[in-house]
Amino acid sequence: MYDILMAGGWLMLPLVLCSIAVVAIALERYWALLPTNILPKNLTAEVWHQYKDQGQLSNDKLRSLRNSSPLGHILAAGIANASHGRDTVKESMEAAASQVLHDLERFLTALGVIATIAPLIGLLGTVTGMIDVFAAIVTEGTSDASLLAGGISKALITTAAGLSVAIPATMLDRYFGRRIESIAVSLEKECVKFVDAMFAQPSIKSPAKNSAAKRVPAKASATEQKAPVKKAVAQKTATKKNTSKKGEESS
């Protein structure tokens, strides 16, 4: 292994650093995106029972809920604005969901960058190696085919190393991206259940008929107003498309 690294030249150093970064990011994101860390079991039901019994959670409980998990962060944002109406709750949960999704995508950009530049670094190493080989042939005037083949094989080492780094990085980038999309769907379901429960409850002071009548528009608005997590995902997707489109126009 050491001989291969030395034969590849100094450009093997950034490739080694890129490979270490890929492994570190993969381990960190795998742990961070575990379902138990994102959506603790029965958290929505527990928070709802506390809210229903107490009417409003204390600042300490909201802070603890916000720091407990990404789902807790979104639910805490909704509970904190529950007295301001459904629209305000929806907007606050959208903002919290956008922040949560941004945090979940941490380091994925770095994976994408590594997947892009690693083959280019390898190609650069091969090109510089080929230049050295042909320069030596011109200087020494050798016609030994074995010597030429040996020089070319050494020059191709960096290309192989670059691809060895880029392929896993690309696969991990796609894998974690899909995993985040799946998590976003699960977060959306939990948020919809919580908001529907929060605003579909019959008022204690109102007659049963009035409360039953109020349930119909509440359900309609739940269908009408898309879940905060889904809207946050759509906003982030649109931002990525606009960024890539600007990059294409500038290029």
Short description:
The protein is mainly α. It contains twelve helices and no strands. Belongs to the exbB/tolQ family.
Question: Top keywords for this entry?
Answer:
251 residues, mainly alpha, 12 helices, 84% helix, rod-shaped
In words, what does this structure look like?
With 251 residues, this protein is an all-alpha fold. It has one domain. The protein has helices at 2-8, 12-32, 35-38, 43-54, 59-68, 70-80, 86-104, 108-140, 145-155, 157-199, 208-224, 228-250. It is rod-shaped and about 90 Å long. The two termini are 39 Å apart.
Give the class from helix and strand content and strand pairing: mainly alpha
> What string, H for helix and E for strand, traces the elements in order?
HHHHHHHHHHHH
Number of domains: 1
Major sheet, described briefly?
A: none
Radius of gyration, taken over Cα atoms and rounded to an integer in Å: 28 Å
Q: What global shape is seen? A: rod-shaped
Uncertain segments are 202-226
Relative helix content: over 70%
Mean pLDDT: 79
Strand content: under 5%
Tally of separate helices: 12
- Count of strand segments: 0
N- to C-terminal distance: 39 Å
